[in-house]
Write a structure and sequence with these properties.
Length: 497
């Protein structure tokens, strides 16, 4: 059987992306800060067979509520692959496989392998898609595959076996990540837009989506009932501190967001949305637009991290870009200038490359969410000199790493669900780091029984500081470990009652 040139080209593209992304990952010593939560879960599963549901080290002791399927799958692979390597490179492999799924979806939608190839090329060079899952491996890394797989299967429900595959993948997705709720909301928007477009949903679509909505809602109410009972509707925001949500939106300005998405996917994707809403009456266009709207609205409501939401929006825009290109080619064929098609293709390729070049030039800034070798070495040394019941204050992003390496309690971390007084802790940590009042700082440290403060370049960057006030108070804050970039301070003073 002869392999067509488009298939060869897409395989070469995916191989090149795999090599380039792997090279970027090698520039970092350790996986991302976020990955250390997964590392702790996998270590717990391997030693006890159960996930870490009661965590004495997180938030000085708390309960974890989660779907554990992802961590069990990783635990199985960790018997064959070293855990740190798995968490550094598995996200890269899955992201490349996601590009292959984008190619399959585009080929199915546009019935043109050259357009599908270009859509894959565009997705591969889009900044936010390229950067996603670099040096990190989380349930989101796996959910990307589930999301694209569910879209592909939903577009193929006319085949009876695909209904079964859709249901199986939906169950897996639900056990992997709560982001499946966004997918369900997108499907509800799809039914609504079909109604507005005077299109009738197919019977199979109604049956499949009814099951999906009932199952996903039942599962989340069952697993997270305690969360809803404690926080009510605020649980939808995953108990993320409002101050942290606000700071995230302030950091990602409109120009930054546009640079993440890329000029070409944005322009062509918006054109595809325009065609779907005002000119074309195609179900799959409505589906992609509905999913885009779902993620955009939930970003605006602060449902999840802005960068993750922009990632899924960009995937949908890339797929919609294919239809914009197809319509542009059709328009050119009807004019007297069809010879412009090769020039237009070259222009699009150059624009895509132009958005990718800054990533190569500034590769050192891409993996800033990963600890340096000095941070890791400092924490390894710290484990041997502090008591087992000690509590350490660091930046919220570093909490999982701190507990994973030192086996000591962190003050807070990024797993906010069911965390105690999370908003107050976030504000109090900021006060401890930035307050110029020793009395204020010590009163909070005494209240939370914090004995050590961990200061890294990441901590200073988070609070936009060159140094913290307590770093110049050796009588109460004694430096016990110090490297070129990272320091640990012991709290030696206490306030008398």
């Amino acid at each position: 059987m002869r392999i067509k040139i488009q298939t060869i080209l897409v395989l070469v593209l995916l191989l090149l992306i795999l090599v380039v992304k792997s090279y970027f990952v090698t520039q970092s010593v350790m996986p991302s800060y976020e990955s250390f939560y997964g590392i702790r879960q996998v270590e717990q599963i391997r030693s006890t067979g159960m996930p870490l549901l009661s965590d004495d080290l997180s938030y000085q002791g708390r309960v974890n509520v989660m779907g554990g399927l992802f961590y069990y799958l990783v635990a199985i692979f960790s018997f064959f692959i070293p855990l740190l390597l798995l968490f550094k490179y598995a996200g890269v492999v899955l992201s490349v496989f996601a590009l292959w799924l984008i190619y399959l979806i585009a080929k199915k939608l546009f019935l043109n392998k050259w357009i599908a190839l270009f859509v894959t090329f565009l997705g591969a060079l889009t900044p936010i898609i390229f950067m996603h899952s670099l040096n990190t491996f989380t349930p989101l890394s796996f959910f990307i595959i589930c999301y694209l797989g569910l879209l592909y299967l939903f577009l193929s429900l006319k085949h009876q076996q695909n209904i079964l595959f859709f249901v199986i993948l939906l169950v897996i997705s639900t056990l992997i990540s709560s982001l499946v709720l966004v997918l369900i909301i997108g499907f509800l928007f799809y039914l609504l837009l079909l109604k507005l477009e005077h299109l009738t949903p197919r019977k199979k679509e109604i049956e499949v989506l009814s099951f999906a909505a009932i199952f996903v809602l039942w599962y989340h109410l069952l697993i997270y009932k305690k969360l809803f009972f404690l926080y009510g509707t605020h649980a939808i925001w995953q108990n993320i501190p409002p101050a942290l949500l606000l700071s995230t939106f302030q950091k990602v300005t409109m120009p930054v967001a546009l640079s993440f998405i890329g000029l070409l996917p944005l322009v062509l994707g918006l054109y595809g949305i325009y065609l779907a809403l005002f000119q074309e009456r195609r179900r799959w266009l409505v589906l992609l637009v509905s999913q885009t709207f779902a993620f955009a609205i939930l970003i605006w409501l602060g449902f999840f991290q802005l960068q993750n939401g922009l990632f899924f929006i960009t995937i949908n825009l890339v797929l919609l870009s294919g239809y914009a290109i197809k319509q542009t080619i059709k328009t050119l064929n009807k004019t007297i200038v069809p010879f412009l098609k090769p020039s237009l293709a070259i222009l699009f390729v150059l624009i895509a490359l132009a958005s990718f070049i800054p990533l190569v030039l500034f590769q050192g800034t891409i993996l800033t969410d990963s600890p340096s070798a000095e941070e890791v070495q400092t924490l390894v040394r710290l484990e041997n000199i502090i008591p087992l019941d000690a509590t350490i204050l660091s930046d919220v992003d570093e909490g999982h790493m701190l507990s994973a390496i030192t086996k000591r309690k962190n003050f807070f971390d990024t797993n906010f669900v069911l965390a105690p007084r999370v908003e107050q802790r976030y504000l109090d940590a900021k006060t401890i780091f930035l307050s110029k009042s020793t009395i204020t700082r010590l009163s909070l440290l005494n209240y939370y029984n914090i004995q050590y403060l961990f200061v890294s370049p990441h901590t200073l960057q988070t609070y936009n500081a060159v140094e913290f006030p307590f770093m110049n108070e050796p009588n109460c804050f004694k430096p016990i470990l110090s490297t070129t970039t990272t320091k640990v301070y012991e709290v030696t003073c206490k306030l008398e009652n």
